[in-house]
Structures
1.
Amino acid sequence: MQALRVGLTGGIGSGKSTVAGLLAACGAAVIDADAISRQTTTPGGAAIGLIAQQFGADFVTAEGALDRERMRQLVFSDPQAKKRLEAIVHPLVAQETGRQAAQALQSGHACIVFDVPLLVESGRWRQQVDQVLVVDCDEETQISRVMTRSGWSREMVLQVMAGQASRSQRLAAADVSINNDGDLSLPALQALVRELAQRFGL
């Protein structure tokens, strides 16, 4: 039996991770591309040696992890640096994502959810999934959620949002969308996700 492959995405603060957790509770296998990406840059991660080669040893902390703050500043001022970093990390993420997907298939999961924050931006993901599920909310809701959750300034949130696809671009790429504005309660969101889960064969 072929598992349904769902690409899950949404802007920062949209509630995408909450939806991923609810789908997992309904029996989906959730593969978190962001978490895999972070693992490649933790101490001893698969990307660390290549990062040191490409960018220099001062981009690696004493513990052997990526110096995120230093890299963030470089990437922000130099778009080419971002491309060079992605050329290291993306193939490693693709490899591990494929391994976890094969494992989920072997375990007999009816639905595999790929949780990919930049699914719309990356272009390559669309061909790898059967359906794209977008968690949507208005921009003010995004900003207030991230400021509350992360203690970031409004400017920092807007900076991250500027690097992501716009709300209209994401919705244009969606086969299915969930509107998760600030006035939607968690039980109401759970009900929406359960309904979707049934459509996904869960």
2.
Amino acid sequence: MSTHEQLASHLAAAWTYGRWQVDELVERGQDAFGRRYRWLRPLAQRLVSALGGKRRPSRRRVLDFLRQDAGFRRVRRQQDLRPTGLQRRRPEMVPTDGPPAGWDIPPLVTPGELADWLAIRPEELAWFADQRQRERTLPPGPLRHYRYYWLSKRLAGSARLVEAPKRRLKAIQRRVLQEILDRIPPHPAAHGFRAGRSIVGFVAPHAGRPVALKIDLRDFFPTIGRPRVVALFRTAGYPEDVAQALASLCTNVVPADVWERFPQYGDARDRWRHEDLVRRPHLPQGAPTSPALANLCSYRLDCRLAGLARSVDGQYTRYADDLLFSGPDALARSLPRFQATVGAIISEEGFRLNGRKTRIMHQGSRQTAAGLVFNQHANMARDEYDRLKAILHNCVLHGPASQNRAAHPDFRAYLEGRVGFIESVNPARGQRLRSRLQQIVWPKT
């Protein structure tokens, strides 16, 4: 490594921590070289002008800037600069300006503190975080952090990969979820994976609107890569090393041998799309942290789409990868342009649109989303209600065994769940079904 590279790396490390302000960068530069050189302030000003923002840039971006800065190279040729041993100040939490400053999250400023907080040793943190992506090359067995399952999506002619973390990693992820992620509020338009929210709240704002537009995102979890997750933790205020470790604990890279078990019903394009996504660090579908991280990493997408909906006096809500818009007749007249703008925003935010599932629903036809009808108010579809009512009626007359045509292993629990769901959507209808359910005579076990 050349002398210039050594000095640039030394200064980049000194400028990684602390608040991203010119005065503080000058002080940290003084700590790095043991003297307040006159050229430090202009260099810091150029750096903030080029990379400045609400969130500190990564060490790599700072280093790349210093490598290319002509002024720093000229100073290096003119002066005999010698580092003083890189006496870093203690790192600190530096959230972005605004709401993050009020998030009640644990202040973890070094990987050692993160390991202590998780009640594991530093070497265990490095093992579970797997920042070197060893999971990609490990053979099947106990050394892997995840178990992998393929689920069929036969109606869509594709497949879904479930990446289930093993016991110890899942316990770590649950603590990150409960004590960090659950304390960071997602956008109000997000209704999936949130306590106190449901599909009823997802569709209710769109009831009675002349036109509704339903759009689906493809490969929602795998599309969100590790850099986005790192950016989220840095926005919360965590230093780069801690943000990288937290993001690595919550993301995964799928081993190559998993693709040898790719189901036969998935076509070649489906296989290539999956492989392109999950061979890089991504949110694993099956980890307890993934739903909350998906919501939080979609915050900017939700902001832009909610603003677009407001511009036409419309409404916007999202339930996981389902996007729902509604509006007045003015929206109906401009739907092609509105739909194109939505697609552009989705693409710009790094997500993928599933064009086959896009639906335009007018008031004169049935408007449905997430299994509910919302033409006038959120409700179960009448045919679904009648079908369940008939099943319960026949169970009372002929016994439950005669109606378990799908061979549910616990038919009673299945019916309890269906009735409970209808109660949450329409309490009056649900109570009528509940009374019929209580009349069923179940065989003694």
3.
Amino acid sequence: MLTPPPIWLEAGLWGLLGGSALVLGAALAYLARLPTRVTAGVMAFGCGVLVSAVAYDLLLDSFELASLWPIVVGAMAGSVAYTAANWLLARDARHRKRSGGQQRGPAEGGGLAIAVGSLLDGIPESVVLGVSLLDG
């Protein structure tokens, strides 16, 4: 009868398997020239998976603590705030997001976009931290 491997070895092997995707992806990106649309699609998919995983993890706790309505109102308010900020920033900086040497002139609005993004990220994060501290 075989004895199972020590838990530290099993954890290390699972970590190695999970981390190998990063090394494999970096090697593929270095060796193969992928079209820009493929790269953008892979990045968008990865971002969507990450956001979905975080949101899914937080949604159950939120639903158990309150109900569905605070979740819906918060998601809609965040979506409207992000869309409005993106629209306002993109009005005068049409070529700000271009890559591969296609950007025309200096990247105007880049610093403002980073500041607004940090603000939009920081507000809900600060609220969550504050509520967590008050809750103990």
